[in-house]
Amino acid sequence: MSEIIIGIIGGTGLDNPDILKDRTEKVTTTPFGNPSDALILGNIEGVPVVLLARHGRKHNISPTDVNYRANIWALKQEGCTHVIATNACGSLQEEIAPGDLIIIDNFIDRTTKRQQTFYDGHTENFKAICHLPMEPAFCQDTRKIILETAKEIGVNARDGGTIVVIEGPRFSSIAESNLFRSWGAHVIGMTSIPEIVLAKEAGLCYGVIAMATDYDCWRDIGEKVSHKNVLEIFHQNVQKVLQLLTALIPRMGRKDWGTAMEDAQALAKNSIFH
Ligand code: ADE
């Protein structure tokens, strides 16, 4: 069995979940500035976990202003080998209903204002250029164990889906929503990019548990997305995510990860162009 430390990035509605034992707080900084909040250290059935609220525990940092680089690097500095992120998202497909969980496996990037690499050419020790492959975008073993755990505990979770990541903070126009549907995207959110990319660049095994909270605005019937219904639906269904995380972490601790962690680190290292 491999020694693992699991970072959990709590998104909207999961800013401060009470799922850790022996909780302590650690204020930290990184070469890229401060993460969104203090790290919460603890464990689930003895497996070490580091919790971080993506938007801060008071939920006061907008998707554009989240310091994604500091968040991922803070988890890396704390020794994390894996990151499980949670995300609220809108559904772009009829068959994905509000409250459903989706274990996404692909993305379309529509963000415009975010730094997507640690290797920016000026931060000390990050002066190289990193050309990182994006297929597969997610750690396959991490996605697989999330899906297996969900099945085992009877929580419905969709295997795969493409998320369109928009800059926000506004929601999409109906023309945009229909465009994203025509591209074959399944869900829409505001924070998976650059988080996915940076986790990969840091050599971490990263997976997402996304929850659909609305049908965005493309549907003729029903409510259009609003901040209020995102929060309402997330809160109504949050127990599913907590149940899944609570079963997942011990299972990840017991798993033989083979060469997955070394492979993730080697890919990151081999993508750097000096
Ligand atoms: N997060 C939750 N619902 C969303 C939507 N419809 N668009 C973008 N981000 C979201």
Compile the SSE list and pairings.
Blueprint: E1 6-10, E2 21-26, E3 39-44, E4 47-53, H1 68-77, E5 82-91, E6 101-103, E7 106-110, E8 129-130, H2 140-153, E9 157-159, E10 162-166, H3 174-182, E11 187-189, H4 192-201, E12 205-214, H5 227-254, H6 260-270, E13 272-273
Parallel strand pairs: 1-4, 1-5, 5-12, 6-9, 7-10, 10-11
Antiparallel strand pairs: 2-3, 3-4, 5-11, 6-12, 8-13
This protein binds adenine (ADE).
Structural account:
This protein is α/β, with parallel strands linked by helices. Helices cover 30% and strands 24% of the residues. The protein has six helices and 13 strands. The strands form two sheets. Strands 1, 2, 3, 4, 5, 6, 7, 9, 10, 11 and 12 form an eleven-stranded mixed sheet that branches. The longest helix has 28 residues, at 227-254. The radius of gyration is 18 Å and the shape is globular. It binds adenine. The site of adenine has 13 residues, from strand 5, strand 11 and strand 12.
Question: Could you write a compact summary of the structure shown?
Answer:
This is Purine nucleoside phosphorylase. Pfam families: PNP_UDP_1 (PF01048). By secondary structure, the protein is an alpha/beta fold.
